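pinning this so it doesn't scroll away 📌
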Amino acid sequence: MKVIDKFILKSYIGPFILTFFISLFVLLMQFLWKHIDDFVGKGFEWYVIAELMFYASATFVPLALPLAVLLSSLMTFGNLGEYYELVAVKSSGISLQRLMRPLIIFIVFTSFGAFYFSNIVLPKANMEFLSLLRDVRQKKPAVSISEGVFNSDIGEYIIKVGKKHSDGVRIENIIIYDHSSGYGNNNLTLAEKGRMEMTLDKKYLVLELNNGKSYSDGNAAQQKGKKSMLPMQITEFTRQVQQFDLSDFAFKKSDKNLFRNNYQMLNVSQLQYFEDSLTFDRDSVLQTNIQVSFSEMNHYNRFIYSDTIKEIVKTQSNSSKSIKDSLDQLIQEQSGVKKPVNSVVQHEIANRETRVSKVDDGPKQTPKNAGSHSMKIDSIKAFDASFLTHFDSITQVRIVSGALGLARNASYQSLNASQRDIIKAKQIDRYLIEWHRKFTLSIACLLLFFIGAPLGAIIRKGGLGMPMVISILMFVLYHILTIIGEKSVKSMVLDPWVGMWLASVVYLPLGIFISYKAAHDAPLLDAEIWFKQWLKISQWLRKYYPKAKA
């Protein structure tokens, strides 16, 4: 490795590590202030908070790493330009591309490491972090019996302490309502003074009461739905000890396997497996609904078909035995038995089949279990009301009401199938979002490096001043585009691959443009150059659009 390569790497790695941990610390403090209400007053041990912060910091790496790459690139090349080291290197015949070569190799390895982290480490960190955060939120606040306030946190007991001494143990004027019997305030305990302490394992609250009375109303106790006639019992005591179970206030960790199939807890191969499974399940359910709908329509159509021919034959002759025989032959033929039929019946069959099976543009589908009764149905053909004239008014009402019922049922099933399909599609998009996110982190590191390094060589300002401002603006814009793309995918406005790669597609030409300008020493941020360009544009506008004379 050449001296210049070692020098560039040493100049870059220091700011990179510094900015990475600064970014991580800022994001961690933001998380802490956001969830501070979930921690305060619940009596957590220090190691629980430390464990939660550790896993939270791991989940913030996808945000902190691209920001650190961008900021350190700006700082490194800004320092080289500010102290004219970049000019000295170029004057010796070393181009900017050659100077960036060791850092490009470093960023490529960093991108592979980012993909490994997002694919292997991040799912496990998400599982630990989200499960622990859920347990922290669900934990009840620690028991705190304040002076002069009724406390109802301890199960079915309500406790009031009139006065607490400075040691937090001695108490006076104690009132305890016992609702454990389920019949209201039938047990009351009063005491002049006492002591209040917790056991060493924090599982029980022990109250030692002195000089008090207990009141128990026996009439409030019910036995088999009838009130007993027991008198009120009053018990005086000089010392009484009551123990209250605090197991509900203890911190309990839930089973992490409950979150194992969440899309944030899976790697690339697992996300692909779940996406394929959900897609197959959605398609199979949709195909089943279509088959059931066509089967019901086909069954109803066969019923109307045979009933129509039957009524037509009856209207033509009610006494002709040959017609009745032909009708029987028709019914048998519809059942799968082929026999010759009467010419009148054949004519009606031909007319009916012409009206039913003629399809212009509508889809043709035959249910699997239709057998010899399957018929082609034109679902968009206009209703031909002329065939109803062959029936009496009661039969016409029955046919029309049956058709309307079938249409309503089909519409209801179609709406439910559409809603289920939308829900499935949103679930599939969630898995696809996480699948694409595994790769966008690595690409973001490369893109932001090729924006930060050339931009630092152009502005020629080091330190944490100007580079910090520019890097924050560039990163915020990138993050906003990422959020817009992700929200659009969740709203089913954009496809997952379009929404998740939106920021990368926007920043790719920007990185190419800035790298080209830096390689050719273009004064991109020189105000005088931009002013000259504006003068040229204004002169062109005056030439073709002169001001109107007054």
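📌 and the second one:
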Amino acid sequence: MSKSTRDEKFPVSSLSFLSLDSIRIVTETLSVGVMLVDADGVLYHVNQAAQFLHQGGGVPKAGFPLADVSPHDWVEVKKVLTTGVPQICSLLRMPMATVLVSRMPVMRLGATVGVMTMMQDINNFNAALHEFPEFQNLAREFETAVEQFEGVFLSLNSRGIIRHVNSAYEKLILLGRQGLVGRHIEDVQRSPRHLVSLFNEAKASRAVATMPVALPTGKTLQGCATPSFDENGELFRVMLRLKSAVSPAAETSRPAASVAPKPSVPSAELQRVCHASGFTVHSSAMNHVVQQALKVSKTSSCVLITGESGVGKTMLASLIHNNSGRSSRPFVVINCGAIPEQLLESELFGYEKGAFTGANAHGKMGLIETADKGTLFLDEIGELQYSLQSNLLEVFEKKSFIRVGGTKRTSVDIRILAATNKNLAEEVEKGNFRRDLFYRLNVIPIAIPPLRERPEDIQAMIEQLISQYNSQNGASKKMSSELLRWLLRYPFRGNMRELVNIMEWLLVMSENDVLGLHDLPSRLQQEYHLTEQARVEPASLPDITQPVSSAAAFSVPDIKMGVSLKDAVAAFEKSYLEKAMKKYGSIQAVSDALDVHFSTLWRKLVKYDLVQNHAAQEKKYVP
């Protein structure tokens, strides 16, 4: 491709100095997924392996903003763009596989001009490790040695990325090591801040550093950071330890309740537990939900979590896992609505070599098997196709399954959690869900109330998000009383997910330190006529907060002979989605506005050829 052709086809990008032809030649030969995102958050290149891993959800394409396809991935990429600190080997659940993700900054002239994301299927990674038994033995020996340390221990690499932790550190911050390893020590919110100071001092001085470290409980421990160097004198590891500095007499004089906590968690402790799993809990309704979750976490019972989209069902499942006896084991999330139907069976149960055309020559371990000894979380269980429900029931009853194309049973030791925004009892009566599977799942139901029913949590989340932004960016943003009052009356149809998105827009896009109504996203400005002359409060809009008749809400076309109800519904759905895409501009925005899951919306847009139409109208350049 000539330079003149390329300049006509592509917008100016911070990665334009890289040859696309060279990138394609290199990345398309790799089995790992590779995505290049420029400084503006626009995808510069996506190889075929990365597109395959995204199938069943939003598929990334060069020339489009990453935020439109994967908002959560964009949040992480933006951290790397902002800080220049790489993210190494973090776990990510994708539609086609659970992958190990590393995000590396692309540097030019001392500035971060982009981010390269690499995704490795964890099944392939585990298969490689199984070929090196000596490595596995060495890793087990190291983990055993780490557990022998008195007090808290964690090991960081030279950049501050956590590589190993012991169970004492996990218990201190109430987060399993799967949620810790691969993260930067500064990103672990519940970790004592003095640990960061200890690490920085040992790294700068290249010598052992010590200082007192105050814990969230009020107790103070003695901290010690020991740097290690390779044969070239380069720092490659820093070991942090926290040991008790309190006299034995003082320890023994403590009441027995501190050794064996009461079953009912105190309010302060409950807050600490919730924060470790991403929850902000101030309402009595959510306090009751979390108390139920903590109680059931100590058992092996199946839990069915219900609630609207975006209320935090995955976070509650994570909280149950993190406070269970399996917290150090895998927490595998399977989105039953995101994996294509034709691939779901092989992804869940795995397959033997030669099971079908195009199968991996060595076979493949299924997602259920990767959860062995840990927790399997079946998100959107109501979307699971009927033909596979009996197979899943067999896993419940026999704790084993047969791979696709296999004959031998594979045993697994898993704890099962499930979540849905559907009424499964109604789905059973309609014949869409097996009755026996429903009763297996519905052992302990926990319902999460929508965010609009707990304004105390809305205000607490707003304050927390503002505090985090100010701390991370050295800012001093605050919210006007007028905007806060407006948000507390807003219905949040997308619940927590919508609140976080609105707050991120407000904090990032606002010009002044005081956030006002004029800083809200344009779609809300237009929907609620937020001008100085006319300001509509959310509670006064009937189409949001109260049901309306179909005649009032929609213009119903005349009945035509020869047009079936199915065709009429399809025509209306296509027209409605087409108007929504024109109004909101991006698939993610339509997903939030219409309260429909991203993957479900994507399938409908593809069905009605609206993805191609939307892409043609986008003022973006596609290679």
